[in-house]
Design goal:
TRNA binds at residue 221. By secondary structure, this protein is of the alpha+beta class. It has helices spanning 2-18, 35-44, 58-62, 103-122, 138-144, 191-195, 213-219, 241-244, 271-275, 279-285, 295-307, and strands at residues 23-28, 73-80, 93-94, 127-130, 149-150, 156-157, 165-172, 201-203, 206-207, 235-237. It folds into 2 domains: 2-86 and 97-172, NADH Oxidase, CATH 3.40.109; 191-250 and 263-307, no CATH class. Helices cover 32% and strands 13% of the residues.
């Protein structure tokens, strides 16, 4: 049986690589003991702002066996999105993850293929794929599976490739060989804390989501509070500051996923182009993009907030 576990785990990791994932780690499905008090405190401090959905499914969020019946293993996967070219630095900025096709679609397809391969190879295996759209603590599982450590900016970090990647999970009802957590390599560095213009990283490893530029420009549906005027450093959708300044991201390498390449017009757009953007241009440039989440009106609101 142990031999099978080893073979099955090896097969899954080889398949993940074939599908373009950066890395794959496996953990035993169960209650995330260390995360429970942390999540409770974070919610109590209202660090989720208007993201009320974070309060839902507290138990499921901490225990995948409550989310996927009969689940035994959590397979965590990383997919690189670091672009080979970035936007005009004089322009309003989008978070790099949103340059191309919405990652939810890209990764979901890869996960479905991975599950299918597992079923073809191993047999009657059931499970569910998750891409940041269900109550799963992605970063905690990725860290538990040895894919990196959670940095002071609360993103997953690896020494080899930094942090510009998506995290996804396949939760299945198959016993596998489990990986071990890695060590923290942030040391005494506080680059991310020092660089955050809205002081959203309130202490090392704790981000007040309700002060984060990504929260204001994507999640918040009401008007952006005026107290934050002049603190957004030209970010109109998301924000990469804490990742951009992280020394480990010197090791980021460009992705090789054609679907993550930006629309040709996107990189050269100037502030004036963004200020005059029409609904048609928005729909053309962001046809299948994650930017659709904020909608045309939301992006217009953000640009207006930066411009005024």
């Amino acid at each position: 049986m142990e031999v099978n576990k080893t073979q099955h785990s090896q097969f899954i990791k080889t398949e993940a690589k074939r599908l373009g994932f950066l890395s794959c780690g496996i953990s035993k499905a169960g209650f995330l003991e260390e995360e429970a008090p942390r999540l409770e405190k974070w919610l109590k401090n209202n660090a989720h702002g208007e993201m009320r959905y974070m309060e839902n499914h507290f138990d499921k969020r901490l225990d995948p066996t409550k989310l996927v019946e009969g689940s035994k293993s959590v397979i965590s996967l990383l997919l690189n999105y670091y672009p080979s070219e970035i936007q005009n630095p004089e322009s309003y900025q989008l978070s790099k993850y949103a340059y191309g096709t919405d990652y939810h679609f890209v990764i979901k397809d890869k996960l479905k293929e991975l599950l299918q391969s597992i079923q073809d190879e191993i047999g009657d295996v059931h499970g569910r794929a998750f891409v940041d759209s269900a109550p799963v603590l992605d970063k905690a599982w990725a860290a538990k599976s040895g894919l990196g450590w959670i940095g002071k900016h609360s993103n997953l970090l690896t020494q080899q490739i930094g942090s510009f990647y998506f995290i996804a999970e396949l939760i299945i009802d198959l016993d596998l060989e489990y990986d071990y957590a890695t060590t923290d390599h942030c040391g005494t560095c506080t680059a991310c804390i020092d660089a955050c213009p809205t002081e959203a990283i309130t202490e090392p490893y704790v981000v007040d989501g309700s002060k984060c530029i990504s929260y204001f420009t994507i999640e918040l549906k009401e008007n952006i509070p005026l107290d934050f005027k002049g603190q957004f450093d030209d970010w109109m959708f998301g924000c990469d500051i804490c990742q951009d300044v992280c020394p480990w991201n010197k090791f980021s390498k460009a992705h090789s996923e054609p679907l993550f390449n930006p629309h040709p017009e996107l990189l050269d757009m100037t502030k004036k182009d963004w200020e005059e953007i029409t609904k048609d241009t928005f729909n053309k440039v962001f046809k299948k993009s994650a930017v659709k989440r904020t909608k045309f009106d939301g992006l217009e609101r953000n640009i207006k907030f930066l411009k005024e």
